[in-house]
Please model this.
Amino acid sequence: MVKITDVAAKAGVAKSTVSNVLTGRKFVSEELRQKVLTACKELDFQPNFCASGLSGGSTHIIALVMEATADIDVYPFYKDLLLSCMRTASTLGYSLLVYYDSDKNKLMQTLRQGRAPIDGAILLTPGVDDERLSQMESNRTHCVVIGRPPDKNIGYVDIDNKNLVGNVCERLIADYGTDVYLLNSSRNLTISQDRAEGFRKVCARHGVNADERQFFSNDCTVDDGLAVAKALVKRNSVFITANEGLAKGVYEAVEQAGLAVGTDVAVFALGRSIEHGHFAPKLSYAKQNYAEIGRIAVESLIAEIKDGRKSAMLVESDVVFRNSTSREQA
Model:
């Protein structure tokens, strides 16, 4: 690993000069500055900001780590989350640095120890085997996850997905019967695991085999929803879907079967977007307060940075029942 002394030796300057170039604490002539920067480039030196003594060993910067996804433009919660994190961090005396990259390997390189000038990070959508969390643990970087992490020793804030699916499932079974199905997101996500657990518990109470009635989709598209539902749909069926894309596919399957959404078949979406436009009849859905989730995540992370205290919090969703889960159409 290249050190600051290596850069100083190659540039022919003192170690303090290299430090001053990198931190901007003191004036350095343009000639010496260029020598230092050239040496850094040739040696591929990555300054360890966190060890540079900024603000007495703290940068007062936290990161929001977002992997680029195809749906970032169609889910409004990203905006709510980002603005909430920015405002909360600012109120508590911290700046927010957003990492957003479609290249996962490049993102992981950035998160390597010393390459990111941060005191801690907020990660989104944890997977069952999440390399980002392993990197944070290896770096001993403070971390809070939005979503339930597989490691119980990591702080997090999440939707109470088990309770959400359980309550919705019970309500719809009471109205339509036990021919119920869960069209879930990728099985590699902890959110999918929690939804599946909530679904299994309700199915068990009603003597239904949940394993035969839940399906996982990596992309959660309209075509995925149509492909699953058209083989299953009949009068009094209930479909709980991970998002509106799957729900739109179920709508198409219901129409192809000569049935009516709401009157004959119940459809409920656990997440919303702006991609799929108008639903007729109106779609029932769960609404999450991502502004609140962002605030809690930032407050929890800063508390952990200051005193090492980790927290785990669950946030309830607002459930909106509309025509797609009503026998009586307005």
The chain has a mean pLDDT of 86.
